[in-house]
Amino acid sequence: MNLTYNGEAICVDSEQSLQQIIVSKGAKPPFAVALNGQFVPAGQLPDTKPNSGDSIEVLSPIQGG
Amino acid sequence: MSSSDHEQLNIYGEYFDSRLLIGSALYPSPQIMQQAIHSSGAEIVTVSLRRQNSVSAGEDFWQLIKETGLKVLPNTAGCHSVKEVITLAQMCREVFKTDWIKLELIGDEYNLQPDPFGLLEATEILLKEGFKVLPYCTDDLVLCQRLADLGCEVLMPWGAPIGTGKGLINAYNLKTIRERLPEHTLIVDAGLGVPSHACTALELGYDAVLLNSAVAGAGDPVKMAKAFSHAVEAGRMGYVAKAMPEKEVAAPSTPTMGMPFWHQN
């Protein structure tokens, strides 16, 4: 199925969890995840399965003012 | 004793010696960022979250910040809706492991002016979720009062729009907020350009200043950070010492008694 990962179109197995998708994309901690604009706590990533067309955001620390 | 009379800066029950909060953005290099933060004497540094595939987001930056040993204040910079700030605040809490959130909700792209209506809505939600909200707001007295009514113990009105370096463009408003909210911790956030701006904010009774561009954008950020540190200290000391009453007419400082040639011509 087709998803958006940090603004990039990707295609994944429909059975994959958020955790598996993020690992497959090589995300390195620390990070936090949102699905369709909603925060998904780290503990829920293995049990959350996105639907086709969903948008995943994986955010990490950056400079801020 | 009002909040501004305490010897240390109080942020939701945590106390700090430094009254300067510093940002981590826009420095010429990561090394200069570290040196400037150290030179400022700040005990609190602001950070943010961005997509991991964006430039410089990730472990390397986070490691540099951790090496400073400072308390981290995450922000929600760049958000334009209540939904965005709520989600980003929740993500910040997980990554940075703090309930503190510098709540930024932009209402106008031209001058990056905070959205007061959305700010109130988001603040109420986040306070109920256990966040310790530090709202970046305009210098509007009623907005600050409403934020205080919701339960904010710290308020951060702007000195001027972000990155302008214009200083305290409405000192009257800032002074009024200080007088009307004597028990709250007040921090001037954004718009400062030179150390005297910070000094004036502290002289007005503000508890601290938060700045980034004024240091990072200086010709010598490390030296400017030190200059702001001194300015904040001077302003605070001047406030505590209580300034003389301002007068409309001149009053001689040298005694007139015993003045020679008095009315002889």
TrEMBL record, chain A:
SUPFAM superfamilies: MoaD/ThiS. CDD domains: Ubl_ThiS. Residues 43-65 are annotated as: Disordered. It comes from the Bacteria. Pfam families: ThiS (PF02597). NCBIfam families: thiS. This is Thiamine biosynthesis protein ThiS.
Automatic annotation (TrEMBL), chain B:
GO terms for cellular component: cytoplasm. It comes from the Bacteria. 1-deoxy-D-xylulose 5-phosphate binds at residues 163, 190-191, 212-213. Its EC number is 2.8.1.10. The active site is at residue 102. The keyword Membrane does not apply. InterPro entries: Aldolase_TIM (IPR013785), Thiazole_synthase_ThiG (IPR033983), ThiG (IPR008867). Pfam families: ThiG. One of its GO terms (biological process) is thiamine diphosphate biosynthetic process. Residues 11-255 form the Thiazole synthase ThiG domain. It catalyses: [ThiS sulfur-carrier protein]-C-terminal-Gly-aminoethanethioate + 2-iminoacetate + 1-deoxy-D-xylulose 5-phosphate = [ThiS sulfur-carrier protein]-C-terminal Gly-Gly + 2-[(2R,5Z)-2-carboxy-4-methylthiazol-5(2H)-ylidene]ethyl phosphate + 2 H2O + H(+). GO terms for molecular function: thiazole synthase activity. Pathway: Cofactor biosynthesis; thiamine diphosphate biosynthesis. It is found in: Cytoplasm. Belongs to the ThiG family. Catalyzes the rearrangement of 1-deoxy-D-xylulose 5-phosphate (DXP) to produce the thiazole phosphate moiety of thiamine. Sulfur is provided by the thiocarboxylate moiety of the carrier protein ThiS. In vitro, sulfur can be provided by H(2)S. Homotetramer. Forms heterodimers with either ThiH or ThiS. HAMAP family: ThiG (MF_00443). This is Thiazole synthase. It comes from Pseudoalteromonas luteoviolacea (strain 2ta16).
